[in-house]
């Protein structure tokens, strides 16, 4: 069964980790955002969740969910994004019963507000919540469960806290380079080295890393805290072009106008 599914799942060898977990990494090219689909396909209901869906690609994601016979129960965000509008609002209007999730610390609206230590169950699988502020005040990392019946190696969905060979900027949205440094070192680099890291974005074509790899090769987070702070203070990045549209929309989890199509919403 496993070989059979692997043969047509995708060209990526990272699509299937166990007979229970269905995992897909999906890409939105305008904002270089990754959306992740996880489901417990061993459970009769095949409950599923989407992490960081984007409004423009909601149709694609929901078609995939339907084709795979999954029951979507959660649409969740790692943080309030500044570069795109979340798809969670649209998902909720298209699939009745789906609950949106974001951290309480983000001060945004959602059906479920989570905090560090919370567990998000889907079937017999679960994600644990780790608070990783610094890129924004409310950033969290979702990590697959630490138990024998959960996927191995563990997987961490880091949002913009830790990117592959990089990290999110810290100059907007309550960001703090000191806080980000401490978050990554205390909440992500303490995970087993083989833990797979799945960020919210990649701009160079990387798809996955590991804790061990970033501890060795991340050009920012391998430095000491003072040097890290200096690097982050001197990035000279342009003002995020979507921030004034995306942040207000995402503070209500994308439910700015449920009847508006994504493109109409973006042009307002
Ligand atoms: Fe972000």
UniProtKB/TrEMBL annotation:
GO cellular component: a single term: mitochondrion
GO terms for MF: metal ion binding; sulfur dioxygenase activity
Cofactor(s) listed: Fe(2+)
An example Gene Ontology biological process: glutathione metabolic process
Subcellular location: Mitochondrion
Keyword Repeat belongs to the record: no
Superkingdom as given in the UniProt entry: Eukaryota
Domain Metallo-beta-lactamase: residue ranges: 32-201
Its EC number(s): 1.13.11.18
Keywords: Acetylation, Dioxygenase, Iron, Metal-binding, Mitochondrion, Oxidoreductase, Transit peptide
Main location: mitochondrion
InterPro entries: Metallo-B-lactamas, Mito_Persulfide_Diox, POD-like_MBL-fold, RibonucZ/Hydroxyglut_hydro
SMART domains: Lactamase_B
Catalytic reaction equation(s): S-sulfanylglutathione + O2 + H2O = sulfite + glutathione + 2 H(+)
PANTHER family assigned: PERSULFIDE DIOXYGENASE ETHE1, PERSULFIDE DIOXYGENASE ETHE1, MITOCHONDRIAL
Family to which the UniProt record says this protein belongs: Belongs to the metallo-beta-lactamase superfamily. Glyoxalase II family.
The protein, known as: persulfide dioxygenase
């Amino acid at each position: 069964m496993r070989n059979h599914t692997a043969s047509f799942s995708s060209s990526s060898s990272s699509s299937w980790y166990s007979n229970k977990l269905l995992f897909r990494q999906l890409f939105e090219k305008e904002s270089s955002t990754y959306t992740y689909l996880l489901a417990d396909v061993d459970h009769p209901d095949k409950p599923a969740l989407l992490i960081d869906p984007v409004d423009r690609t909601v149709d694609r994601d929901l078609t995939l969910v339907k084709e795979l016979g999954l029951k979507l129960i959660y649409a969740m965000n790692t943080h309030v994004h500044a570069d795109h509008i979340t798809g969670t609002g649209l998902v909720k209007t298209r699939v009745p019963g789906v609950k949106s999730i974001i951290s309480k610390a983000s001060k945004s609206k959602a059906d479920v507000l989570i905090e560090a230590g919370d567990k998000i169950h889907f079937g017999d699988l679960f994600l644990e919540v780790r608070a990783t502020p610094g890129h924004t005040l409310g950033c969290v990392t979702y990590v697959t469960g630490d138990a024998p019946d959960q996927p191995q190696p563990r997987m961490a969905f880091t949002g913009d806290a830790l990117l592959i060979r990089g990290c999110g900027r810290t100059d907007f949205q309550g960001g703090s380079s000191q806080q980000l440094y401490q978050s990554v070192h205390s909440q992500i680099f303490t995970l087993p080295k083989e833990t797979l890291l799945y960020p919210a974005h990649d701009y160079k074509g990387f798809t996955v890393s590991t804790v061990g790899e970033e501890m060795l090769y991340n050009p920012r987070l391998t430095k000491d805290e003072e040097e890290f702070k200096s690097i982050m203070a001197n990035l000279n990045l342009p003002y995020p072009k979507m921030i004034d549209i995306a942040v207000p929309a995402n503070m209500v989890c994308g439910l700015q106008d449920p009847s508006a199509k994504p493109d109409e919403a973006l042009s307002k």
